[in-house]
Amino acid sequence: MKKSVFLFALAISVISCNKATEAKEFKTAYIDTSKLMEESTEAKDIEAKYKDKSKVMGNQLEVEVARFKAEAASFKDNAMKFGQAWAQQKGAELQQREQQLNYAQQGMLRQLQEESGVEMDSLVKSYKKIIKDYGKEKGYDYIYGTGDAQSVLYAKDSYDLTKDVLKIINDKYKAAGKKEENTETKKEEKKK
């Protein structure tokens, strides 16, 4: 009886050791997704594109706002000259223009958010594919994401793949840009 209990305990400990050894065979790492998006050349280019677009659209709106402010200042000066009926009518017109300017500003912001959101969503999908391919190529069982939406509570810094994946992403983006430049150069040469 003691022998069978001893053999049973020995078998369980051998199985436990095998499972512990198997658990150590998993290759895991993590990527700081916030840092990836902040330092990615393509993400920076998209952000810069929409900052520039925002400035252009904002400048157009600023012209309208300046015109509105000038009319509002003129309204105050002319209100006494032209009487109460004129002041009420002009005041209503100014309120309506102010609302229109507010709607235009909100519409502009919404348009910029929608357009940049579509590009950023596409970028995220692209990065997920790159990370998946990288994980398969390097033999990882799991790659976790940290950053704004953390899915890892602890990880050793040695498991951080952010720099490696960021380099691949930036190199791939630069290579795509060079391909476009080469294509454009060839088109210009053919025209000559």
Question: What is the number of independent domains?
Answer: 1
Q: Overall 3D geometry?
A: rod-shaped
Detail the poorly predicted runs: 4-11, 16-21
Largest sheet: 2 strands, parallel
Assigned CATH architecture: 2-Layer Sandwich
CATH class: Alpha Beta
How would you write the strand order of the largest sheet?
Answer: 1-2
SSE order: HEHHHEH
The CATH topology assignment is Protein Binding, DinI Protein, Chain A
Kindly state the number of beta strands: 2
Rg, nearest Å: 31 Å
> What share of the residues does DSSP label as strand, in percent?
5-15%
What value does the average pLDDT take? 80
Identify the CATH homologous superfamily.
Skp domain
- What is the number of helical segments per DSSP (H or I, 4+ residues)? 5
Structural class: mainly alpha
